[in-house]
Write a structure and sequence with these properties.
The complex is a heterodimer of chains A (258) and B (782). Chain A is mostly helical. Chain A has helices spanning 2-10, 15-26, 30-49, 51-78, 85-90, 96-116, 122-166, 174-198, and strands at 203-204, 211-212, 231-233, 240-242. The chains are: A mainly alpha (258), B alpha+beta (782).
């Protein structure tokens, strides 16, 4: 019996298994392993057959790589290769507004430094800082609005997809139906988790009332500083308390937002 | 066509061209609103890079297996060459160096395409397309004009010609690849600039991305140029390190362009100004790299680099024309959108200083470019070849260099937009005091210490211009030392003020931070700024090395065995000559060398009555080229001065020999400056923390980056020492302690410069070998 089971284990892989293996090899996680295997092969060839054989094996490996890359390129070109998530994500570049916002935040950072080492007068600092902050506020508002629209659109798409799933005929089989039910259950639990996440305490901005994470120092919408001078932000609850106090009077925790 | 290696190699060259053309077409398709094609273009770019790697591996295989059917292999290698030099021959001649250039470009292409994933979606297709045009140009060049796989018409030979003896040097392994890495690196910023112009995405973010690529190219341009200086200093045997040779000049031109860009890009980032200027500088720098290659290859002007000349110049002329026409056309097309709305508000601002600095750098660049081409220009204009030599360059470059040096110190004192008179006064006070103090000390004690503030200088021209240049040349040592003090004080002040500001902020928060911790945090939080200051520190060190030439002493003497000659603080006693192999005093390696005959002239060196060691300058007569003996320099190094000895001619019967002795003052500080520059660029390169990254991983990543940078710097630090080690024969017994003490100071200095004991030890170790410490193979030979 044991001999038979060994024979079964050594049985050649089915085409489906080979396809599975090839699919796995195409995944990004497999690349380092393939590279290491290639390098070890070249090293072994060089050790066994000399430097010349090592060079030749490296050339052979590179030739295989070229063929593989060109094949992949032609597949993408002809559209036979599906667009994977990684590639799809790269199709959405950061917007010009996002990049502009980053540049402004960088400029504000520089400005702080210039003032701290006395290279810029207080008047110039105030003027420039106010200008950059106003521009950053505008951009953050634009980006938030865009995000809201995109989120709504995404929610609609998810709902549409959910509805189309639920309208699927039962003829497709019970197993599949159960699978669908499982998926819905998973979706529901995810929504529940999201709603739980929504219950996480936030800190409202005194200027525009936007809800900010507890670890934020500035408002994500208007850029307003969440704690004025002489105040501390509690890291565990939305409270803002005097700097002279060691622990938060509301929750008793001593950690502040750094 | 596939049966043999040469034919297969040629097929691969065609495949590179086809693959680059395919990738170009797909990239353009991706750029024209078909973003789905972009993954195909990216894979095509990787495949093109891999094909170039394949071609290089095939050529390396041909060299290692002595496949003399291939013309290039038979011309640049022979059976006696070691595997190391066989691989070096890959870039020893023109055909191979073009393939090597393509290989470096392929590394850049692959790295850039990998880095671009998920970034700059609109620019990406055009970046890949531009890179493929450059790859295509080099593959066309290789296929139609300089095929490294072309076979000899006469068929396979029994043995090859071998590599030029001058190129069989340690420097050949490190200098060309470094310089090429810098040259080729300028292609990536150019590709970004073209992509921005074509796509119309002209905001400031791509400039930020380009900066790092240009900084990398700048680093390798600096390393390549300084290694070239070292090579000239070590191998050519004329006593200097920079001869203003056309090819040397061509190699330093992109450096000026890159340096100007790295400064002016900050203005675009901060003030959204100089956008046209920045794109112009990027295109100019790339153009200058192609121009430099053209000058080396085309043989337009007589140069010491004549070993690489051929008739492929016309291809370069067309390509340069294409670059100029394409870049100018795109710039004019996008001009209305590129014009800045902001203006420089005050001359007392950092941006104004950067603009002046840019003009000074561009002025130096233009001067060198025009003077290099002057023999041709004069031929075209007056039908008479007027050659300009090193004295002309030295006279004119002195004031320009000093102006750039002064601006380098001044710019950091100003703030952006405008600096108030009070803040400027406060910022300038300490550096000006330091400069004045050093100036007074130099005038008072300089002559006593052997560094006189003024040196004698002849008038180069009649009239006022000549007089002005003469005066500037005479005062150059004093002015340089004063400006070095000013620059040092500015940098020190920047660090101190920054650290003080951090400490004050910490105190306001009720925390305490030590000065050292503040300094570390300051650099860590502003790596670009403080990395730049460290680079400036390296430039100061280099300027000190350059000004040392003003105090150098050169002698030419003829001596018989037993005679002595005094130069500066050294006394050299000629002990006689020996021919190796054959003489019992030769080392086993020298006895075993069958490729050449070596004539050594042994000189014992003492200073103040104490022996410093033996130097043995030599002439090597290679069996393959008996009519062109090479000069082998022997040196004694120290931080104060190098004793540089060259033997001219030795009479075999009387053993009388002619020598050239040079005491090259402070030259060591140029090499130290390079090490500091590398460390500064490494600080600037230190990767930023990625949001969301685990803290431990950020430390691991930083540690890996630091180790890589330090390791690289260590290799560079030790390279010259390894090459220099064979020159000095031994230390005189009983004097080891003196030498060790001096060596320790050199090591400590390098250690301070790097901020790491490992690097200091590496540099000290390198120096110890150069001096022939007991235990070193050279010392044992004696």
């Amino acid at each position: 019996m044991r001999g038979m089971s060994n024979e079964n284990e050594r049985a050649p892989k089915s085409p489906a298994e080979w396809e599975k293996l090839l699919d796995w090899l195409k995944r990004p996680e497999a690349r380092p392993l393939l590279a290491v295997c290639g390098l070890l092969g070249v090293l072994a060839a060089a050790l066994l057959g000399g430097f010349e054989l090592g060079l030749l094996s490296a050339a052979a490996g590179v030739l295989i790589l070229v063929i593989w890359l060109l094949w992949g390129s032609l597949e993408k070109l002809s559209g036979t290769s599906p667009l994977n998530l990684e590639d799809a994500l790269t199709l959405a570049p950061p917007s010009a507004e996002e990049e502009h916002k980053q540049a402004l935040l960088r400029a504000l950072n520089d400005l702080e430094y210039e003032r701290s080492v006395g290279k810029i007068s207080q008047q110039d600092y105030s003027e420039l800082s106010a200008r950059y902050r106003a521009q950053a506020k505008q951009l953050i508002k634009v980006l938030d609005d865009e995000r809201t629209v995109a989120l709504e659109r995404a929610q609609q798409l998810v709902l549409q997809r959910g509805e189309s799933h639920s309208r699927r005929p039962r003829a497709k089989g019970r197993a599949r139906h159960e699978g669908g039910a499982d998926t819905r259950r998973a979706d529901t639990s995810r929504v529940e988790k999201k709603s739980e996440k929504a219950k996480v305490p936030t800190r409202p901005c005194a200027d525009c009332s936007a809800r900010n994470d507890l670890d934020s120092l500035f408002c994500k919408r208007c850029g307003h500083k969440l704690a004025s001078d002489g105040q501390r932000l509690c890291g565990a609850c939305p409270a803002v308390y005097e700097q002279s106090l060691i622990t938060c009077p509301q929750c008793g925790v001593s950690g502040e937002v750094a | 066509m596939w049966q043999s290696l040469p034919e297969f190699g040629t097929v691969i060259l065609y495949a590179i061209l086809v693959c680059a053309a395919y990738t170009f077409a797909v990239s353009i398709g991706a750029g024209r609103a078909r973003a789905r094609l972009l993954p195909a273009a990216r894979l095509g770019a990787y495949a093109t890079s891999a094909l170039i790697g394949l071609a290089v591996l095939l050529l390396a295989y041909a060299f290692v297996t002595h496949d003399f059917r291939i013309r290039y292999v038979s011309r640049y290698s022979d059976r006696s060459m070691s595997t190391g030099y066989l691989l070096t021959a890959l870039w020893g001649g023109q055909d191979g160096s073009l393939l090597w250039w393509s290989l470096l470009l392929s590394f850049y292409v692959a790295a850039c395409v990998r880095w671009l994933k998920g970034r700059y979606q609109q620019l990406q297709p055009y970046i890949i397309a531009t890179l493929m045009v450059v790859v295509g140009f080099f593959s066309i060049l290789m296929i139609f004009a300089a095929n490294p796989f072309a076979t000899s018409i006469a068929g396979s030979r029994v043995d090859g010609d071998g590599l030029n003896p001058l190129l069989q040097s340690y420097w050949m392994i490190i200098h060309p690849p470094s310089l090429y890495t810098g040259f080729v690196g300028c292609t990536i910023p150019f590709a970004f600039a073209v992509a921005a112009l074509v796509s119309g995405r002209l905001d400031n973010e791509w400039i930020l991305a380009v900066r790092k690529w240009m900084l990398f190219a700048f680093l390798f341009l600096s390393i390549g140029n300084v290694l070239g200086m070292m090579w000239a200093y070590e191998e050519l045997g004329w006593g200097g390190f920079w001869a203003w040779d056309p090819v040397e000049n061509a190699a330093c031109l992109p450096w000026f362009g890159a340096a100007a860009y790295l400064h002016s890009t900050m203005i675009q980032e901060r003030r959204n100004m100089l956008r046209v200027w920045n794109i112009f500088l990027i295109c100019l720098t790339f153009f200058l790299t192609i121009y430099g290659t053209f000058l080396t290859r085309a043989g337009l002007i007589t140069s010491v680099h004549a070993f690489a000349q051929s008739n492929i110049g016309i291809f370069f002329v067309w390509f340069m024309g294409f670059i100029v026409a394409g870049s100018a056309g795109l710039l004019v097309w996008r001009w209305p959108r590129l014009r800045a709305k902001a203006r420089i508000e005050s001359l007392a601002s950092r941006e104004a200083m950067f603009v002046v600095n840019n003009w000074a750098l561009l002025g130096a660049l233009t001067f060198i470019a025009v003077a290099t081409l002057f023999p041709k220009i004069s031929e075209w204009l007056w039908n008479e070849t007027v050659t300009v030599g090193p004295p002309f360059f030295n006279r004119w470059m002195a004031p320009m260099g000093l102006l750039i040096f002064a601006l380098m110190g001044l710019a950091p004192l100003f703030g952006w937009r405008k600096s108030s008179a009070v803040s400027l006064q406060r910022a300038c006070a300490a550096p000006l005091i330091a400069m004045g103090l050093v100036g007074v000390l130099h005038i008072a004690f300089g002559s006593l210490l052997g560094f006189p503030p003024w040196v004698k200088n002849d008038a180069f021209y009649p009239g006022l211009t000549g007089l002005v240049l003469q005066k500037i040349g005479s005062a150059a040592p004093l002015v340089t030392i004063m400006l070095a003090a000013f620059n040092l004080a500015v940098i020190a002040q920047e660090f101190v003020r920054g650290a003080a500001a951090r400490r004050a902020a910490a105190e306001r928060r009720g925390e305490s931070e030590g000065f050292a911790a503040s300094l570390f945090q300051l650099v860590q939080k502003n790596r670009r700024r403080y990395g730049g200051y460290i680079v400036h520190l390296g430039i100061i060190s280099m300027f000190i090395g350059f000004v040392g030439t003003a105090w150098s002493i050169n002698r030419e003497v003829s001596m018989s065995p037993g005679q002595s000659h005094r130069i500066d603080r050294y006394v050299l006693t000629y002990r006689g000559s020996r021919m190796c192999p054959g003489n019992p005093a030769c080392s086993p390696e020298q006895q075993a060398d069958i490729n050449k005959r070596m004539v050594f002239a042994d000189l014992d060196v003492t200073s103040g009555g104490q022996g410093l060691g033996r130097v043995s300058p030599a002439k090597f007569i290679y069996n393959r080229q008996p009519d062109s003996p090479t000069t082998e320099v022997a040196m004694l190094h120290s931080l104060r001065a190098d004793l540089y000895t060259v033997v001219g001619m030795v009479d075999p019967s009387s053993k009388r020999a002619t020598f050239q002795f040079h005491v090259n003052t402070l030259v060591c500080w140029i090499w130290v400056g390079l090490l500091i520059l590398i460390s500064g660029v490494s600080v600037s390169f230190w990767p930023d923390a990625v949001p969301g990254e685990l803290r431990v991983w950020s430390f691991v990543r930083a540690a890996v980056a630091a180790t890589a940078a330090s390791g690289f710097a260590l290799v560079i630090a030790m390279s010259p020492a390894a090459a220099m080690a064979s020159k000095t024969q031994r230390a005189v017994p009983g004097l080891v302690s003196d030498i060790s003490a001096e060596r320790g100071s050199a090591g400590a200095l390098a250690g301070i410069a790097f901020g790491g004991l490992a690097l200091g030890a590496g540099f000290a170790g390198g120096r110890s070998r150069a001096r022939g410490t007991p235990g070193h193979p050279d010392a044992r030979d004696e």
